[in-house]
Design goal:
The chain has helices at 67-73, 104-110, 126-136, 144-154, 158-161, 174-187, 204-217, 230-236, 259-264, 269-275, and strands at 2-3, 29-38, 41-51, 56-60, 84-92, 95-96, 111-114, 192-196, 222-226, 239-245, 251-258. It is built from 10 helices and 11 strands. The model is unreliable at 1-23 (pLDDT under 50). It has one domain (2-120, 191-275): Rossmann fold, CATH 3.40.50.300. Helix 6 (174-187) packs parallel to helix 7. By secondary structure, the protein is α/β, with parallel strands linked by helices. It is globular. The protein has a 6-stranded mixed β-sheet, sandwiched between helices. Strands 1, 2, 3, 5 and 6 form a 5-stranded antiparallel β-sheet that branches.
């Protein structure tokens, strides 16, 4: 069992980062024997999962089974929680992200996160929101205007905001704010993008646009998404992992595999019950 520190900043890196560290090439992510504790209570047990490059992997299962905890472990945000511990390994293209030579800020630069609730900087302009992650990480951008246009285009937002880039990020609708957050995450050119229920607070039209964005960027970045929407999981992912926790038991992966198999020919009856709406 390894005990994790809680003092690292999510964005800032005292040593600074250079633009060469952000290649924008999708990577393979693999978890091996991952366990997690909160205040010494085991909440996640023995998770093994391969998240292939340029694919969308959906994490499904009832609330409280460890999906979001697992997602936070994948970019070292779990260690920011007081009392949090973990064991096992997480490899990004065969490099252990918790290795002694790996800095947390560098890991989060390569493995980005989009949260459940849109969190743009409300008083900051749309333009500056897109560049904020790079600026906080002290990365110099030779053509910031071109980068802003490119990332807003990838996030499916450019046509809606191109004439008001100086407007505050907080003035956008909920769906637009979430796409702005996606643009901000993509601006550092991560190789993996983690998404924790990115559509749970959005209307159906905004949800559809976020799903379109996922399809549009999937070739450039590996995506891991937590969702409780079974239809969404089927629409956006190529692979699914079904998490489940028993009473007073930690969360585990019951079954994982191609999305079509999980929904049409699951191997475990608990998987069949969940994806067909018989519990959860």
């Amino acid at each position: 069992m390894s005990f994790l520190g809680t003092g690292n900043s999510v964005l800032a890196d005292p040593a600074g980062l250079d633009a060469a560290g952000a290649t924008g090439t999708a990577s393979r992510l693999e978890a091996k024997g991952v366990c997690a504790w909160f205040s010494r209570r085991l909440v996640l047990d023995g998770v093994n999962l391969v998240m292939d490059r340029s694919e969308v992997t959906a994490l499904i299962g009832p609330s409280g089974c460890g999906k979001s905890t697992f997602l936070r472990i994948l970019n070292r945000m779990h260690e920011l929680v007081p009392g949090a511990e973990m064991s096992g390994t997480v490899e990004l293209d065969d490099v252990e992200i918790y290795g002694v030579t790996q800095r947390a800020a560098q890991t989060r630069f390569k493995i980005g996160m989009v949260f459940q609730k849109p969190n743009p900087f409300p008083a900051m302009s749309i333009y500056d929101n897109v560049l904020s992650g790079l600026r906080f990480s002290r990365v110099r951008v030779p053509d910031p205007g071109g980068l802003v246009e490119e990332m807003l285009t990838k996030a499916g937002l450019w046509s809606e905001v191109r004439n008001r880039l100086k407007a505050r990020g907080g003035e956008l609708s909920g769906g637009q704010q979430q796409r702005l957050c996606i643009a901000r995450a993509l601006a550092v050119r991560p190789s993996v993008l983690l998404m924790d229920e990115p559509c749970s607070a959005l209307d159906p039209t905004s949800t559809r646009r976020i799903e379109e964005t996922i399809h549009e960027i999937a070739n450039d970045v590996t995506i891991v998404i937590v969702t409780h929407n079974m239809q969404q999981a089927q629409r956006v992912s190529q692979k699914c992992a079904f998490f489940l926790a028993g009473e007073n038991e930690p969360g585990r992966i019951v079954e994982s595999g191609p999305t079509e198999q999980i929904f049409r020919h699951p191997q475990d009856p608990r998987t069949s019950d969940y994806v067909n709406g018989r519990f959860g």
